[in-house]
Specification:
The protein is 79% helix and 0% strand. It is mainly α.
Length: 410
């Protein structure tokens, strides 16, 4: 329901601003620009979804091999001490636990393209045990919020963009992004746990937090003395080894169990196209609304008013120039990335605004986009408190990004 109101508000505010510019400012191009943006963003949504089809097909084929070979069941059994407490509705050793783990792992490595197909697979498995097929279950909401809060350990794509724009040290945002995503993930996890009355002080959770902390500290210690170029190569090599290694492990497990690995892959891959087609309307809906809101100039006006308010309070307003990234991030990842690159072009990647834009880009994931395609892929219409929890995690990430940016680069 909340997404419905936000979708209507984006259109309504955009059209209202456009009409005001036409009537009072005589801007004859305002409404045509909004119309063009609507069609442009709709086409972008369609092309983006089609571009996702290949990755969806591939990863669903790999996941099918894991299911048929029993590897995902073994993975779920191994993770069950933690995940069954975090997702108490999911039966012990259910394949959904393995898919959830793989999705979270891909997000931690900054692999958006790999995370989405596995996330959609996990959502399908969660829907298979959901008693109310049109309503988000507690497990779905926990999974979605952990997904949108997006704990990212290695921001490979952000470092690559910074290098492309000539940053002196493209990897200097590594630690700030890690701290920021850690804040958003903790807030998201705690918020959902309060709603679902999950006790996070159980031994299994404390061990999990300790392991994650040890991995983060170990990774940070490994790359601390590396040069910028060495760090980029190391991160890319690490992610490549982990992903290719996972693929080989799945194929080997199928070969060892003497299943027809090729046929198993094909059977799973067939579902990738169907999932891609099913999420097209949801992508088009959210991106068309974002296009109208942005083309109308409402986004720019909002930034100007925020700057005025911040300066009126006597605060430093340098962060306001990066606010378009913050506002766009929950709605559309490509739009937020475009805003980040615009900050690089206007202020430079090594400026305060350039650093903040990078950290904001890695602080959380695209909440409304993920809610739309993940819930849309399984026909969920009642989101319950998922939007509120997701936005709270986003807000925590954004606030943390500003303060951490001032601490490191201000």
């Amino acid at each position: 329901m909340a997404l419905n109101y936000i979708w209507i508000a984006l259109f309504a505010i955009g059209v209202l601003v456009g009409v005001i510019k036409l009537v009072f400012l005589g801007d004859m191009d305002a409404l045509p620009a909004m119309m063009d943006s609507t069609f442009e963003m709709s086409n972008m949504a369609f092309e983006m979804t089609l571009g996702l089809t290949g990755m969806l097909t591939f990863w669903m084929g790999i996941m099918k091999i894991g299911e048929d070979s029993g590897l995902i069941e073994k993975l779920a059994r191994f993770l069950s001490p933690v995940l069954t407490k975090l997702f108490p509705e999911i039966p012990k050793n259910h394949p959904a636990l393995g898919s959830i783990f793989m999705n979270i792992s891909a997000n931690m490595l900054g692999l958006d393209n790999a995370a989405t197909p596995v996330g959609l697979k996990a959502m399908q498995e969660l829907q298979s045990i959901n008693k109310q097929k049109d309503t988000a279950s507690n497990s779905m909401i926990m999974f979605l919020v952990l997904n949108t809060s997006s704990l990212m350990i290695i921001p490979v794509s952000i470092m690559a963009y910074r290098a492309k724009f000539g940053a002196a040290d493209p990897t200097d945002v590594f630690l700030p992004i890690l701290l920021t995503t850690l804040c958003s993930t903790i807030v998201g996890l705690v918020t959902v746990s309060i709603y679902q009355r999950i006790n996070l002080f159980q031994r299994a959770f404390l061990v999990m937090f300790a392991v994650i902390a040890a991995l983060v500290i170990g990774l940070f210690a490994t790359i601390w003395r590396m040069s910028s170029e060495e760090m980029q190569h190391f991160c890319r090599l690490l992610t490549s080894c982990l992903i290719l290694g996972a693929i080989l492990v799945f194929i080997y497990s199928g070969w060892r169990r003497k299943i027809n690995v090729y046929n198993s892959f094909i059977e799973g891959a067939k579902g990738g196209f169907n999932v891609a087609v099913s999420i097209i309307p949801y992508c088009v809906a959210i991106l068309a609304a974002v296009g109208v809101f942005k083309a109308s100039g409402a986004l720019g006006l909002l930034k100007d008013y925020i700057r005025m308010g911040v300066e009126w309070c006597g605060m430093n307003s340098d962060f306001v120039d990066a606010i378009p990234v913050m506002l766009m991030k929950p709605l559309n990842g490509s739009g937020a990335r475009g805003m980040m690159l615009e900050c690089f072009t206007s202020f430079g990647p090594d400026s305060f605004v350039g650093h903040l834009a990078s950290i904001l880009q890695g602080s959380t994931d695209t909440t409304f986009y993920i809610l739309a395609i993940y819930f849309g892929s399984v026909g969920i219409k009642k989101y319950r408190y998922s939007v509120a929890c997701g936005l709270m995690a986003d807000f925590a990430g954004f606030i943390a990004a500003v303060f951490i940016s001032y601490f490191f680069f201000g």
